[in-house]
Structures are given as C-alpha cells and as structure tokens.
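Blinded run. Sample ID left blank on purpose so nobody reads anything into the name before looking at the predicted structure. Input follows.
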Amino acid sequence: MQYSVVIPTNRPIAAVLPTLQSLQKQTISATQIIIVYDKLLTQNDYDSMQHVIRNNMQAWMIERISIISNISHDFQPDQWVSVVRNTWIQYADSDYILCIDDDNTIASNCIQRLSTLVHNAKMKYNQEPLIVPTEYHKNTIRSRGYSGFSYLFGIPVAYHEQKWFQIGDDYVGHIQFASSNCLFGHKDIFKQHPFSERMSFIYEDFAMTASVYRAGIPLILAHSIIVNHHMRTKTPLEDSYIATPAHAYQKGKNRIWFVRILGNRREKICYFVLWLHIHTCALIAKTVRYAPGFIPGYMICYAIIRGTRAWLFSKK
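Blinded prediction complete.
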C-alpha cells in the first residue's frame, strides 16, 4: 500500500521529530511526508529546519519529506489547521492518506495494521472506509469516536465499549463522528469531504467525519490500533478551548455552527431552546472560576457572548 502523510505544525521542527521518527520506523514506509509549517518563517528558520532533519533522519527518509512554508511555496501561513489540511491533501501523490498531528507517535506496525483493516473492511462493506485509531494519552486510552450528539445537553455521546465487534483480527466500532488526531483512508474521501474551514478546536474533525458518515461511508473506530498523543497538561480553560478571547469567540462560533449544519429541525429546536443558554452560562462560570484575573476573565466572557450572538444570527 502506498500512502502519503500530512502533518500540519507551527512548532519548532525538533518538537516534530518524534512523529517523524515513528514514521521512519514503520514496516510499510510512506512514499511522501508533507510537513505544512503554518507559521511565518525567515530564510534562516527554514535552513535550520532542513539542518535538523538532515542530522536526525535517515537519507531515504529525508528524500520523502517535503516542508511546505512561506519560504518554499506560495503559501499563506497562520490559517486554521483545517485550511492547511485541505490545501495540501490536494498535493498528496498516493492513493491513501494519513493525517496525523505533530505531537503524535505511532507503533512501528501501525500502518501495517491500518492497511490490513482497510482491506478487511473493503471486503466486508464493498467500499473504502475511513479509519479512526484510538488515542492513548498519559497512560489512559481515550476513545475519540462518538455514536451521536446529544442536542438536549449539547455534548457528544461517546461510543460504548460493549458495542465492539471484529473485522479480521481487530476490534472496531461504527461511529457517527470523531475528534481524532489521526485519520487514515483513501484520498478521495478526504477530497470529497474536506475539513470544515468554518470551525476549529476539534469541531472541524466533528464536521468532516460526520459528513463522511452521512454519505454512507464506513467510519470505523479501531479499538486496538493506538496513537500516542504527547499533549502537555492543559489548564481548565485551555481544555475547554476558552483560554483566550480569540479562542472563546471561536468556541461560541463552533458549537453554534456544528448544530446548524448537522442537526435536523427538531434537534436544532431542542438545542437552541433547551441547552444553549445553560451551556453559555456554564462556560462563563468556568471562566469566572479559573481566569487569571478580572480583566482577562471579563474579556473571555465577553468573547463567548459575542461569538455566540454573532453566529446564532448569521445566515452564512
């Protein structure tokens, strides 16, 4: 199986090395690795990145790595990760694509197992599936697949572990959407169902994978195929994606837009009448409790309300 890898990042290239080194160890090697550097670079920055890669990766691997930046390509940085993914997925040469975050690593047989699962799923469903590996973070396995969305309470419904079944040697589950740091599937799936460029902070994953599910494409959560997520410990506000006014505004936008594009009429009425105001008050209460001072807290609360109102009445 030939596959390309797309890695969006804005971190120092040294921080991305564990991801690249885990890809280098795969029993099935990638034919192409596209690192999209979503940050404004100088020529010295770009040369330093190339130097780090040359000194830490094997020669055959270096030949397959492409760094996309404002220095090397006609590329505008500082965009949402969904914009970056959609743009450079179009440049992937292989039939299959692995979208992976810059703080993830995978076991050496991960692609081999994904390839086998794709083959077995194609035999079962007679069409290409999209695979969502299970996330492993700080000794905790976190299933990032969801069996639905509670429009009454405004939260995703996690896939229940008792629903696992087997495809070949792998335990899997059918899900309706996912918030995954890693996705694997045929390039046509990614091109026909791009990441939502209206949303960010995992909501772009929700919208993209929900679109795949609603198109009748098998969206499969792989229980035993693990992605290691090396995320730093977050504050309560960071964990809720409201640590800054800009993030808080985006959070207000995301939850409104997600319900508007995916909910039916009954679900929208349920969410906007019964839950929206409670959810907004809960975010404000969390801000009041954890904000580092009155002024930052006020600005975050104002951004939550402003983002909610702006996108609640938007017709776009």
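Unblinding after everyone has recorded impressions. The longest strand covers residues 219-229.
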